């Protein structure tokens, strides 16, 4: 068995059993990948994949176990390389972060600005992914960690920590009738077409739940994940918007104003997530603490050896930033 064969396995799984796509992703030929998988199966004496003609159709039950153990071996290999890199060049490297457009645009800049003064040789890759994909992206090894404003499915290989609380705000034209109201209610808001986040996003779920609890069925004229898109259609007077307060504060101008909805729609949670297999270097600890001051290195080191239930209990003691 060779580590390269395990890398081929990982690529195949990451590309939904499509050998052609897998081979392109690792810059090798499709016949070469097929041959190595065949040699691995012959060496082990079991079939890892079920086949339909020349195509892989499914992963066998024993194949799932083999792949799971193989991914652990690759994770150990990556940790060994990370430890070596940290020893040889503790102030170098690239931080791979997957996050939402709102976080990357409105929250990360101050953290990055502060961080690079201390670690000028670190570079960044900021990747964007749909919130539902973040757990998978981390486990596939595409990011060091992810910062998301969406609940992430927890499992034993993923550490999920609360980063901050965030609220929603109403954005509307400066001459809108609701600006004259002293105490805005959901009933008042529901009388107008709404423009907000996509269904399934945390912000939209929070809105839906708040309206449902009062038996109100609002009309959504449009949903989108980009706050600039939402603002554009609000400025055209096609509806009023509901977006994250941190974004509303920065994109509103004289023509578009923001009204906080704290106490009307419950706050939402944002999370920092990373694989238990990631070797956290000193600059990674510093970056996380710069973004979420309650996540100090000594706390993170305790969390590294804690179960998910223990992490949940530890998290209850955190005093979270609010945006």
Question: Would you give an account of this structure?
Answer:
GO terms for molecular function: DNA-binding transcription factor activity; transcription cis-regulatory region binding. It holds the Pfam family HTH_1. One of its GO terms (biological process) is cysteine biosynthetic process. This protein is α/β, with parallel strands linked by helices and 323 residues long. The protein folds into three domains: 82 residues, Arc Repressor Mutant, subunit A; 120 residues, D-Maltodextrin-Binding Protein, domain 2 (3-Layer(aba) Sandwich), CATH 3.40.190; 93 residues, D-Maltodextrin-Binding Protein, domain 2. The protein is built from 14 helices and twelve strands. The strands form three sheets. It has a five-stranded mixed β-sheet. α6 packs antiparallel against α12. The model has no long low-confidence stretch (mean pLDDT 90).
Condensed summary:
By secondary structure, the chain is an alpha/beta fold.
Q: Keywords for this structure?
A:
323 residues, D-Maltodextrin-Binding Protein, domain 2, five-stranded mixed sheet, globular, transcription cis-regulatory region binding, WH-like_DNA-bd_sf
- First-last Cα distance: 51 Å
Order of secondary-structure elements: HHHEEHEHHEHEEEHEHEHEHEEHHH
Count all strands and give the number: 12
Structurally, the number of domains stands at: 3
The H-level CATH homologous superfamily of the largest domain, spelled out, is Periplasmic binding protein-like II
The top-level CATH class of the largest domain is: Alpha Beta
Low-confidence runs of at least 5 consecutive residues: none
Strand content: 15-25%
Structural class: alpha/beta
What's the overall geometry?
globular
What radius of gyration results from the CA coordinates? 23 Å
Known CATH architecture of the largest domain: 3-Layer(aba) Sandwich
Oligomer: single chain
Q: Spatial order of the strands in the main sheet?
A: 4-3-5-12-6
* CATH topology title of the largest domain: D-Maltodextrin-Binding Protein, domain 2
The tally of helices reads 14
Pfam families: HTH_1, LysR_substrate
Keywords: DNA-binding, Transcription, Transcription regulation
Family: Belongs to the LysR transcriptional regulatory family.
InterPro entries: LysR_HTH_N, LysR_subst-bd, WH-like_DNA-bd_sf, WH_DNA-bd_sf
């Amino acid at each position: 068995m060779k580590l390269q064969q395990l890398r081929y396995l990982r690529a195949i799984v990451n590309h939904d059993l499509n050998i052609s796509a897998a081979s392109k992703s690792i810059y090798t030929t499709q016949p070469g990948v097929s041959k190595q998988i065949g040699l691995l199966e012959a060496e082990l004496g079991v079939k890892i994949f079920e086949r339909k003609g020349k195509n892989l159709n499914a992963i066998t039950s024993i194949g799932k176990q083999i792949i799971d153990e193989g991914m652990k071996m690759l994770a150990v290999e990556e940790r060994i390389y990370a430890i070596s890199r940290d020893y040889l060049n503790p102030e170098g490297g690239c931080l791979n972060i997957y996050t939402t457009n709102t976080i990357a645009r409105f929250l990360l800049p101050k953290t990055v600005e502060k961080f690079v003064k201390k670690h000028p040789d670190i570079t960044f890759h900021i990747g964007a992914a749909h919130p539902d994909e973040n757990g998978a992206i981390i486990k596939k090894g595409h990011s060091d960690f992810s910062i998301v404003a969406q609940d992430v499915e927890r499992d034993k290989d993923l550490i999920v920590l609360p980063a901050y609380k965030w609220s929603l705000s109403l954005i509307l034209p400066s001459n809108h009738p609701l600006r004259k109201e002293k105490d805005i209610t959901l009933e008042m808001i529901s009388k107008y077409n709404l423009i907000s986040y996509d269904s399934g996003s945390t912000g939209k779920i929070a809105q839906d739940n708040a309206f449902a609890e009062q038996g109100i069925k609002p009309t959504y004229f449009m949903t989108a994940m980009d706050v600039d898109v939402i603002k554009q259609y609000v400025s055209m007077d096609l509806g009023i918007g509901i977006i994250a307060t941190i974004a509303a504060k920065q994109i509103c101008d004289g023509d578009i104003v923001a009204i906080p909805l704290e106490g009307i729609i419950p706050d939402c949670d944002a999370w920092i997530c990373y694989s238990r297999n990631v070797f956290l270097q000193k600059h990674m600890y510093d970056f996380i603490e710069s973004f979420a001051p309650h996540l100090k290195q000594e706390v993170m080191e305790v969390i590294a050896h804690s179960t998910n239930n223990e992490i949940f209990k530890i998290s209850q003691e955190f005093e979270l930033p609010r945006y």
